[in-house]
């Protein structure tokens, strides 16, 4: 059947556009409300994420901030553009005007300036502690107030010429006061170094009293003088010249306590007439592990007189006595060189050891301010290669060469001595007395003492004389045998001290004084601990164990000198 044709101008029904239906109005309102709510929820959620987001650290800014915090305060003060430098300059000028205001009676201005100076100091201290640079906001108020006060001071006729004259006079006065204080400090320090502690002197008095009241001690002393051990060259001989009882005891005690065979040690102690009784009593009533201790008085050496010794002859001169023992001293010279110990005969006896010990071949000399920490008998086996003395050199730095001790502008010195020769130390020395007698070293000492009668070759002391006497006759020893400086140097390496055979408290800060360096004092004190058994008129505890410090500062000698003490002291190792 043929298809039905539609009327012309009209589409067929299957090709006609479907009719569009319009949505109801309420649906459009509902959609709009949902869109608004969604937009509000989106905005709210976005704000919450921004609020709770962890802070992002900018590494570059952190580095800059850290670098900014670490401000060098010294560089800030030196910088001409920093506020710290401006504050410092203003503060310095303000301090000057404070002095001027006080001198002219303007106390109100002085108080105002001082107040601003304190504010300035507070701000600078805060910068130094925090490490942050001072900002303009912090510095400007203080600088402004200081500038106004300085202008006010200048307006009060404190002109620059008056300021310069006043400050110059103040500087001169302060320099004079500083110079006087330095001299006074040196005098007081030297006085303290030369003094004997009260209780140490008391010990000497009690021992002397015991010596005088007990004739047995004098008898035993004479017996010891006749001992064959004193001249036996198979034994180990040590020489100590001192007037300090406890210091000598520490030397002997520390030597025998470190010796493998203390019975083979012989000590030759020489002291003066005043301390002879105390020194003899001390070593008679103590047993130092079976060693032999001989105590002699310097007055026994009749050959040591003005005819034989230039030093004795010089000491008899009034000028020398006035220099070392007089009240008026020339302040142009250093105070330490007026120390009478430098010209003490005991101190110079080291140059007469062959005369004092004529039968011996080798001797170790020890000062009374040393502590022995190793066995010293090995020193006697050291080969000196024909030299007279073995000593530790001290020229690790150029400071301790010969030109430091001697006057090389004098022709006698410059023509015979090399100024760059290495110096060495007294205090622990091994002497070959056979080589000494062969070189006639004592005569060399006399020659140099005579040449130095006017103190033009060296100022004073035994070391310069020893450097000249034993010039070319010294054998260097290993540094560990003798470590110096415990009487003045606070920075000695602990490992060096521990490895040392002998430590030396050379200097003014002796270990038995309150001036002693606390860091090294224990070394000396541990060798001076003793056990004291004593009987007294008043009943006291027997068998009391006291240390050296307790002995010096405790109750042992609080009784009057009239009471008689009988001592029986044994060393405790």
UniProtKB/TrEMBL annotation:
Protein topology in the membrane: Single-pass type II membrane protein
| A GO CC term assigned to this protein in UniProt | Golgi membrane
Its Enzyme Commission number(s) read: 2.4.1.-
Q: Which residues cross the membrane?
A: 26-44
The protein's UniProt keywords, in alphabetical order, are:
Cell wall biogenesis/degradation, Glycoprotein, Glycosyltransferase, Golgi apparatus, Membrane, Signal-anchor, Transferase, Transmembrane, Transmembrane helix
> Which Gene3D superfamilies does the UniProt record give?
Spore Coat Polysaccharide Biosynthesis Protein SpsA, Chain A
Q: Fetch the Pfam families from UniProt.
A: GAUT_1, Glyco_transf_8
Checking InterPro entries in the record gives: GAUT, Glyco_trans_8, Nucleotide-diphossugar_trans
Gene Ontology MF terms: polygalacturonate 4-alpha-galacturonosyltransferase activity
Q: Where in the cell is it found?
A: Golgi apparatus membrane
Location (main, coarse): Golgi
Q: In which pathway does it act?
A: Glycan metabolism; pectin biosynthesis
Similarity remark: Belongs to the glycosyltransferase 8 family.
Q: What is this protein called?
A: Hexosyltransferase
Its source organism is: Oryza glumipatula
